[in-house]
Amino acid sequence: MKKVSFAEFGGPDVLQLIDAEEPHAGPGRIRVAVRAAGVNPVDWRVREGQVLGAHPTELPSGVGLDAAGTVDEVGEGVAGVEVGDRVFGEGSSTYAEFAVLGAWARMPEGLTFEEAAGYPSVVETALRVVREVGVRPGQMLLVSGASGGVGSAVLQIARDRGIGVIGTAGAANQEYLRGLGALATTYGEGWVERVRGLGRVDAALDLAGSGVIRELVELTGSPERVVTIADLGAPEFGVRFSGVAGSVPAALATAVDLISRGRLHIPVEKSYSLADAAAAHADSQAGHTRGRRVLVV
After folding, report:
1. What does DSSP say about strands 16-19 and 61-62: parallel, antiparallel, or unpaired?
2. Helix (H, G, I), strand (E, B) or coil at 120
3. Residue pair 297/36 in contact by the 8 Å Cβ criterion
4. Among 7, 29, 57, 182, which is most buried by a count of CB atoms within 10 Å?
5. What are phi and psi of 209, to 5 degrees?
6. For 193-243, what is each residue's pLDDT tens digit?
7. In terms of DSSP H, where are the helices of 197-247?
């Protein structure tokens, strides 16, 4: 089978499309014929060799956590899923023609494989950080870097729970954020005062790692009201870095519920082939994403 792999840490150019042995589903796992794989920031952070405790890496390594496809192998002890089912979920080395998943759910009706591949890690992360920052219905949540996949999910999850949201993003994504129910403003010089002009801030999330932790603490009044998924230096300010996943099966169940009720939709900004994985990583690292980027197999 074809698989994206890297034998050394580095930039996007270390990614290679290789011939590899097919993986097989062990106990409690399923194997899918991958139709699409989500491209997440954690993928290129791992590729660069960043120290991420939840994702230890041995070289050579495959790439990717999220996938959508059809079940073609069911491991021992697995119930409730059959060969041929359309599923989306999380596993390992999903930038490949076949991948083993440890958490999955049936795809909601009307969702394409490309769309479905963009949800698993994104929704788990969004649910986790909203929970960890402790924001409650009726309060206002500031989301720095709100137009990407996690930001898109956070805005919609928060609104579904009666939480107000302020989102920062580039000028081109202001209407997109407003369409998701957020009060929107641009980042850059003067952004703190622009946020203050939109209302109080009870809690804040840093999703972009753009060096704004000090300002988020200032806006919320306490480092305990700020959580980041992107700034490894945040603990210096007393701010929690959230990098360890919670329950992916529970997150997938929530995603299915929200999608089925029309309360969650994350658009696919761009699709790539497996051979173009390096370009997908370069684009992801450049930021300014609206929604998700995925690989189509």
Report:
1. unpaired
2. helix
3. yes
4. 182
5. 65, 40
6. 999 999 999 999 999 988 999 999 999 999 999 999 999 899 999 999 998
7. 213-220
Of the pLDDT bands very low, low, confident and very high (cuts 50, 70, 90), residue 55 is low
Neighbours of 33 (CB within 10 A): 17
64 Cα distance to chain centroid? 11
In the numeric block, which tokens belong to residue 234?
Answer: 């945040």
Tokens of 276: 């173009």
Q: Could you tell me the end-to-end alpha-carbon distance of the chain, in angstroms, rounded to an integer?
A: 11
At residue 186, does pLDDT exceed 90?
A: yes
On whether the CB atoms of residues 170 and 208 are closer than 8 A, the answer is no
Determine contact, residues 253/263, Cβ cutoff 8 Å.
no
Q: Is 66 helix (H, G, I), strand (E, B) or coil?
A: strand
And the tokens for 209? 């790692």
- And the tokens for 255? 């995603």
Q: How far is CA 192 from CA 52, 185, 212, 216, 220, in A?
A: 30, 10, 10, 9, 11
In whole angstroms, give the CA distance from residue 128 to residue 227.
10
Greatest Cα-to-Cα distance within the chain, rounded to the nearest angstrom: 57
Looking at 75-163, which runs of residues are DSSP E strands?
A: 86-92, 98-106, 140-144
DSSP character string of 276-291: GHHHHHHHHHH----B
What is d(CA 171, CA 297) in angstroms, rounded to the nearest whole number?
33
Q: How far apart are CA 127 and CA 233, in angstroms?
A: 22
**258: DSSP letter:** H
